[in-house]
Automatic annotation (TrEMBL):
Superkingdom of the organism of origin: Eukaryota
Descriptive protein name: Protein BMH2
Annotated Gene3D superfamilies: 14-3-3 domain (1.20.190.20)
Family membership: Belongs to the 14-3-3 family.
Length: 235
C-alpha cells in the first residue's frame, strides 16, 4: 500500500480525507512493526550480553539493521511531507496533520539516531509540532481529535525529548481543560476519538505528576457532562 500511496502523493495534489487516513495508517503500520521488532531484539541483546560473543554480535548486527530501516522509513515520510504534502496542503486541518506527522517522525528519529543526526531531528520535531499546534488552535475546535492529538504528542515531546516537564504538563493540562470546557456545553455526543485523546492527556498528567513529585495532578478525568472515564479505561 505504501508504494501506491507514495505515487499518489508525488502527483502534487491535495489528498482527500480518506487518502490522508490511509497514508497515516500505512506508514504507522510499517514503522510500528519495525519498532516492535527493535524492542524484541534489544531485549534479547541485553540478555545475551554475558553469553556467546558470536550470538551477541549477530543480534547486535540485526538491531543495527532494524535501526537503519527505521531511519529510512522516517526520512522517507519526512521527504514526502517537505516535498509534496505540506506544499500542497490547502486546509488548516491538512496543514495541522502534516506538521504533526513531521513532528512525530522527527521524534521517532531522535529515539534511534545519535551523534550529528540527533540534534537536527530534535529541532525539526520541535519546529513542526510548534506549527501544528499553532494551526490546530487557530483552525480547529478545542475538542477536535486532531487538535487533541497534537497536544498529546507535543507534550510527550516536551517531556521525553526536551526534558521540559513543566512545559509538558502545562500544555497537556490546558489542552484537557479547554476540551473539557467545550464538551461541558456541547449538546451532541462528542467523537469517541476526542474522548480517547482526553483520556490520554489525563493519564499522562497523572503519570508525570506521580513520577516527578509523588503527587497527583489537580485534574479529574470524570468531571465532565460527557463522562470520560466511563468509556475509556485504558489505552
Amino acid at each position: 500500500m505504501v508504494p501506491l500511496l507514495k505515487q499518489v502523493v508525488k502527483k502534487g495534489v491535495e489528498l482527500s480525507v480518506d487518502e490522508r487516513n490511509l497514508l497515516t495508517t500505512a506508514f504507522n503500520n510499517v514503522f510500528n512493526t519495525r519498532r516492535a521488532s527493535w524492542r524484541i531484539i534489544f531485549s534479547i541483546e541485553k540478555n545475551e550480553y554475558k553469553g556467546s560473543e558470536k550470538h551477541f554480535a549477530t543480534i547486535r548486527g540485526y538491531r543495527i539493521k532494524i535501526e537503519n530501516e527505521i531511519e529510512e522509513i522516517c526520512r522517507d515520510v519526512l521527504d514526502l511531507l517537505d516535498q509534496s504534502l505540506i506544499p500542497n496542503a490547502s486546509t488548516g486541518e491538512s496543514m495541522a496533520l502534516y506538521y504533526k506527522m513531521k513532528g512525530d517522525y522527527s521524534r521517532y528519529l531522535t529515539e534511534f539516531v545519535s551523534g550529528k543526526k540527533h540534534n537536527p531531528a530534535v529541532i525539526s520535531g520541535y519546529n513542526a509540532y510548534k506549527i501544528a499546534a499553532y494551526v490546530a488552535q487557530a483552525e480547529l475546535t478545542a475538542a477536535h481529535p486532531l487538535r487533541l492529538s497534537v497536544a498529546v504528542n507535543f507534550s510527550v515531546f516536551y517531556y521525553r525529548i526536551l526534558n521540559s516537564r513543566d512545559r509538558a504538563r502545562y500544555l497537556a493540562k490546558h489542552a484537557f481543560d479547554d476540551a473539557k470546557a467545550e464538551l461541558d456545553v456541547l449538546i451532541k455526543e462528542p467523537e469517541d476519538d476526542s474522548i480517547l485523546l482526553m483520556q490520554l492527556l489525563c493519564i499522562n498528567l497523572t503519570l508525570w505528576a506521580s513520577s516527578d513529585s509523588g503527587k497527583r495532578e489537580g485534574i479529574s478525568c470524570r468531571k465532565t457532562r460527557h463522562t470520560i472515564g466511563a468509556r475509556i479505561q485504558s489505552t
